[in-house]
Specification:
By secondary structure, the chain is an alpha/beta fold. The chain is 35% helix and 19% strand. The chain has ten helices and 13 strands. The longest helix has 20 residues, at 59-78.
């Protein structure tokens, strides 16, 4: 059965869910264009919200936009719509990352709709997790979620986890020594109280979490180089549960797959009662990124380091209003 063309009022809630996706430094580098005549929703990357130093190839920008695309798919399924997605549909417009045509419901979309409650519950938690093991069945489910989007989720061995933690630590020092990169990160952080927060983007101080006593358990410390009165110290888990999301290729189409897989894994983890955080810190340095992968794995390119566990939920971070990111033409 052919679905009717959606009205703008039906599209707005989908975009409200889409923009809850994570993005590098919470820059929210996306724009949406709804074309009422055809019912198509186009997703564009916003170069004005790119990170020229930390993300010169716009790999992380693609991941964030693709995560928003996955949220849109979930929201559409929950609303009883299927989504026909065309990724990178126009070679002459590299900022047009995807076009979505909404259609009638399909059985394969039901599992997506079930993830919709997790969209608003998922927040990065940069707080210590417990030492509790994650049941193998949950990890298997997360690996299956990544495979559904054409990616792999690797559960590294102990030696590999130690290597990744060391690379995260190394990347922190590299950023401290590179004043330009440090300034780029600093521009997206806010050290005032939540009441003083005026921008609808970036990382607010209450999302930094405590300072790390030790190496930090795989958590990026956005307040590492800043003096923040009253910020506490804490010991993080001794054996963090690190997973690596990756692809066989490393082109824009691979990044779009990875971003959708990333969000599927995060939402499934949230639905399973886990809390998560991510770090791309060692992936932002070409000389470190290649050492993050396991040379014996079929995963050639790591796209994100994900930390999983049981612990406190992270706070919600600000989001740009839909009126700022959605245009109707």
């Amino acid at each position: 059965m052919t679905a009717s063309i959606p009205e703008p009022a039906e599209v707005v809630p989908l975009i409200e869910d889409a923009v809850m996706a994570p993005s590098m430094h919470n820059a929210q580098p996306w724009k949406f264009l709804f074309r009422p005549a055809s019912g198509s929703i186009e997703l564009y990357g916003d170069p004005g919200r790119a990170m020229p130093l930390a993300d010169p190839d716009h790999r992380a920008l693609h991941l964030g936009c693709a995560a928003a695309l996955f949220n849109l798919r979930v929201s559409a399924a929950w609303a009883g719509r299927g989504a026909n997605v065309r990724v990178l549909p126009d070679r002459d417009d590299p900022w047009l990352l995807a076009a979505v045509d909404l259609k009638g419901p399909e059985p394969k979309d039901r599992d997506l709709g079930a993830l919709r409650p997790a969209i608003r519950r998922r927040h990065s938690s940069r707080f210590p997790f417990s030492e509790e093991d994650i049941p193998p069945a949950l990890l298997d489910g997360l690996q299956a979620a990544a495979l559904l989007e054409g990616c792999r989720l690797l559960i590294p061995d102990a030696w590999h986890t130690d290597t990744v933690l060391g690379l995260i630590h190394d990347s922190e020092h590299r950023e401290e020594m590179d004043l330009a990169v440090a300034a780029e990160t600093l521009a997206w952080t806010h050290t005032g109280t939540p009441e003083q927060q005026t921008r609808p983007d970036g990382i607010p101080v209450n999302a930094f979490g405590p300072k790390h006593a030790g190496r930090g358990g795989g958590v990026r410390d956005f307040g590492r180089s800043q003096h923040i009165p009253g910020r506490a110290w804490a010991a993080f888990e001794r054996k963090p549960h690190i997973t690596l999301l990756g692809t066989s290729g490393d082109r824009p189409e691979d990044w779009m797959r990875a971003g959708q897989a990333l969000q599927r894994v995060l939402l499934q983890a949230t639905a399973d009662g886990l809390v998560t955080s991510m770090t791309s810190h060692p992936l932002e340095w070409p000389e470190l990124r290649w050492t993050v992968r396991d040379p014996g794995s079929a995963m050639n390119h790591v796209q994100m380091v994900i930390r999983l566990g049981y612990g406190p939920q992270g706070p919600a971070t600000p989001r740009r209003p839909v009126a700022e990111v959605l245009h109707i033409r």
